[in-house]
Amino acid sequence: LGVERVGRHDDFFALGGHSLIATQVVSRVNAALRTNIALRLLFEASVLLGFAREVQDARHVRTALEETPLEPRTVAGQPALLSFAQERLWFLNRLDGGASVYNVALPLRLEGNLDLAAFAHSLREVVRRHAVLRMAVEATAVEPRQLTNALEEPGFAVVDLASLAPSLREMAVERVLEEEIARPFDLVSGPVLRATALRLSDREHVIALVLHHIVTDGWSSGVL
Predict the structure, then answer these.
(1) What is the H or E stretch that residue 26 is in?
(2) Is the pTM above the cut of 0.90?
(3) Is the peptide bond before 184 cis (omega within 30 degrees of 0)?
(4) CB atoms < 10 A from the CB of 56, how many?
């Protein structure tokens, strides 16, 4: 939480906690104490003393809640069902005609020597390892499903702005970022991720990563 001291009667949310930090707290508690508490427990008992008592109770009954292996939702080799959150975003995407309101932008300003070929290779490797970043949506008659082989090579464009005057470069960066964020994704054909490298000089670049919310959220963006 970034505060100097937390007392037993302090409230998690009053100290600046929010849902993303709550997820981290519960994950670390479960890892450290070998419990299996749910995220809602912190929302229901947000004062530290009460939360600690709930965690203690959960540890006492842990033997009745031994972990069981997670079973895949679908058969290997067959298109996967969308999660409930993905179904909602798919419906909203269809409803608003593919507008860009659910585009998630991750602009990165990098200083120093940048090997663009290595960066592009790294991006391809991330996409190769995470099937969700290769997905498109198969709109079946019954329910939409994920096609995870829709994109093998993520789009990666390079825009050279180094020849512009310094005062014009930043304006050009803002313009390109706005255009990339406003450009909608086609969830049926993919891709759901695109990247643009803006070269400002030999030692300064801006990378514009844009993803559709159907494949990322605040937590996932931090991991990426």
Answers:
(1) helix 19-33
(2) no
(3) no
(4) 11
